[in-house]
Amino acid sequence: MFSNFITNLKRIIFFGWQSLSRNKGLSFGVIFIMSVAVLLITSLFLFQGFSEFLISEAQKKVDISVYFKKNITPEKIFAVESDLRQTFPKVENIEYISQEKALEIFKEKHKDDTLYLDALKEVGDNPFLASLNIKTNDPNIYSQISNFLGREPTEDLIEKVSYYQNKKVIDKLFSFTNNMKKGGIVLSVILALLIALITFNTVKLTIGSFKEEISTMRLVGASNWFIRGPFLIQGLLYGIISVLIVDIVLFSVLYFLNPKLGNWFLDFNLLNYFKTNFFLLVSVQFIFSVILGVFSSFIAVHRYLKI
C-alpha cells in the first residue's frame, strides 16, 4: 500500500513538472507575476521591521521637559523631582536645569549666531525658565507622568510641559506607517487576485494540451485525485520557484548594497533583519504563494475537468 502511494506520488510530481515545462511561456508569466506579489509581501515584512525601528528610535528620543514658573524656588522643584522618582520607579534620569544653566546652554548653542545673541541682549533679563528633563526606560509611562504633573498642587508650579508636542510626532509617524501597511495590503490583495486569475487561465490552457493524457488516465481507471494531482503540483511549483527567485535576488541586493541602504534607512540594517527573521519570512512567503498557486489550480481543475 505504502509503495503504491510513493509510486503514484512520484508520477504525479513528474506529470506536474512536465506540465510546467511543456508550457514555458505561460509558466514564465505566472512565475513572474507571482514573484512580484511575493516581493511585495516581503517588502511589507521588511517595512514592518523598519517602521518598528523608527518608532522605537523616536520613542527613545522622547522625553518630558517640565518648565516651572519664574517665582518657583529650586527647593520646590527638587520636591517635585523626589515625588516623581518615588511614584515612577522606571524613571531613568531626571536632570535639573536652572535658569542660569539654560541661559548658558542657549549661548553656547548660538555662539556663532549674532542674531540670537543680539536678541538676547535686547531682552536684558534672563528669559529662560528652570526645568526638569525626564527620561524613562518605558516610553509608555510618559503619559502617566504627564497626567501626574497636571494634578494639584504640582500643576500650580508648572508653566508648561513639552510631552504633548513630542507625542504628536510619534502619533504622526505611527499613523504614516499604518497607512503604508494598509496600502501595501490592498495592493497585495489586488496582485493576489491577478495571480489567481492568471494561474487559473494557465492551468485551463494546460488542461487543453493534456486532454489525451487525461482521457487515457480515465480509461485505465485513474482516480480523480490522481488526475488533479499534477495540476496542483504545478501550482505548488509556481509558488516554490517564485519564493526562491525573490529570496535569492533580494539577498544579493541587500548583501551588496547594505552599507548604502544603511544611510538611506537611518542605520536600520535590512540585511541583518532579513537574516534574523529569515525562517519566519520564508514561512510567510510560502504560505502566501503556495496556497495561492495550489488554490488557483484546484479551482481551474474542478471547473474545467468536471470531476
TrEMBL record:
<keyword id="KW-1133">Transmembrane helix</keyword>
<feature type="transmembrane region" description="Helical">
    <location>
        <begin position="231"/>
        <end position="257"/>
    </location>
</feature>
<feature type="transmembrane region" description="Helical">
    <location>
        <begin position="185"/>
        <end position="210"/>
    </location>
</feature>
<feature type="domain" description="ABC3 transporter permease C-terminal">
    <location>
        <begin position="185"/>
        <end position="307"/>
    </location>
</feature>
<comment type="similarity">
    <text>Belongs to the ABC-4 integral membrane protein family. FtsX subfamily.</text>
</comment>
<dbReference type="Pfam" id="PF18075">
    <property type="entry name" value="FtsX_ECD"/>
</dbReference>
<dbReference type="Pfam" id="PF02687">
    <property type="entry name" value="FtsX"/>
</dbReference>
<dbReference type="GO" id="GO:0005886">
    <property type="term" value="C:plasma membrane"/>
</dbReference>
<dbReference type="InterPro" id="IPR040690">
    <property type="entry name" value="FtsX_ECD"/>
</dbReference>
<dbReference type="InterPro" id="IPR003838">
    <property type="entry name" value="ABC3_permease_C"/>
</dbReference>
<feature type="domain" description="FtsX extracellular">
    <location>
        <begin position="62"/>
        <end position="148"/>
    </location>
</feature>
<keyword id="KW-0472">Membrane</keyword>
<feature type="transmembrane region" description="Helical">
    <location>
        <begin position="26"/>
        <end position="47"/>
    </location>
</feature>
<keyword id="KW-0132">Cell division</keyword>
<dbReference type="InterPro" id="IPR004513">
    <property type="entry name" value="FtsX"/>
</dbReference>
<dbReference type="GO" id="GO:0051301">
    <property type="term" value="P:cell division"/>
</dbReference>
<protein>
    <recommendedName>
        <fullName>Cell division protein FtsX</fullName>
    </recommendedName>
</protein>
<keyword id="KW-0812">Transmembrane</keyword>
<keyword id="KW-1003">Cell membrane</keyword>
<keyword id="KW-0131">Cell cycle</keyword>
<feature type="transmembrane region" description="Helical">
    <location>
        <begin position="277"/>
        <end position="301"/>
    </location>
</feature>
